[in-house]
């Protein structure tokens, strides 16, 4: 099944038909893939996966909104990449389905679409490459 990802830079929806690999932006270690995809939350600027690899959970923290979470860091370079949410305040109750999952910050990860040869920083799909293909199809 295709994933629908939103590019933060252009606000255009992109359909992804091939599996995605998510990597730490700091060292390129693989953190997860689209087989564990749960959702993307644009208002929180995160992608949510049910499983991550090559990462460590830190001690639980509570932020000023009342969310309780464990910070997730890359095991290789110790870069913070997201959070595992355990409690959400009422303000975010519409997102309660992410409790127990891993919310990865889009600015802390990069993605690669398998089979495409396209690498995409920040978990965004390359609009420029898609437009170039459309131009080639149109002119050729």
What labels describe this entry?
globular, 140 residues, 9% helix, four-stranded antiparallel beta sheet, mainly beta, 42% strand, seven-stranded antiparallel beta sheet, 1 helix, disordered N terminus
Description:
The protein has 140 residues and is mostly beta strands. The chain contains 1 helix and 13 strands, in the order βββββββββββββα. The radius of gyration is 16 Å and the shape is globular. The N terminus is likely disordered.
Give the helix/strand layout.
Blueprint lengths: L2 E4 L6 E4 L3 E5 L5 E4 L3 E5 L4 E4 L5 E3 L3 E2 L5 E7 L5 E8 L14 E4 L3 E5 L4 E4 L5 H13 L1
Compute the number of strand runs: 13
SSE string, helices as H and strands as E: EEEEEEEEEEEEEH
Q: Biggest sheet, in brief?
A: 7 strands, antiparallel
Question: Spans with pLDDT under 50 lasting ≥5 residues?
Answer: 1-13, 121-131
Instruction: Tell me, rounded to a whole number, the average pLDDT.
Output: 76
β-strand amount: 35-45%
- State the helicity in percent bands: under 10%
Q: Quote the distance from N terminus to C terminus.
A: 30 Å
Structural class: mainly beta
What is the alpha-carbon Rg in Å? 16 Å
- What global shape is seen? globular
Helix count, per DSSP?
1
Give the gist of this structure.
The chain is mainly beta and 140 residues long. Helix content is 9%, strand content 42%. Strands 5, 6, 7, 8, 9, 10 and 11 form a seven-stranded antiparallel beta sheet that branches. Strands 4-3-12-13 form a four-stranded antiparallel beta sheet, with no helix packed on it. A two-stranded antiparallel sheet has the order 1-2.
């Amino acid at each position: 099944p295709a994933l629908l990802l939103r590019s933060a830079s252009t606000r255009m929806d992109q359909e992804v038909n091939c599996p995605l690999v998510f990597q730490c932006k700091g060292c390129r270690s693989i953190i997860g893939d689209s087989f564990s995809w749960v959702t993307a939350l644009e208002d929180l600027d995160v992608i949510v996966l049910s499983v991550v690899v090559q990462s460590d959970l830190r001690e639980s923290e509570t932020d000023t909104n009342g969310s309780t979470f464990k910070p997730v860091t890359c095991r290789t370079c110790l870069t913070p990449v997201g959070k595992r949410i355990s409690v959400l305040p009422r303000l975010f109750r519409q997102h309660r389905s992410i409790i127990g999952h891993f919310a990865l910050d889009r600015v802390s990860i990069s993605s690669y679409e398998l089979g495409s040869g396209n690498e995409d920083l920040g978990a965004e799909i390359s609009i420029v490459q898609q437009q170039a293909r459309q131009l080639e199809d149109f002119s050729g």
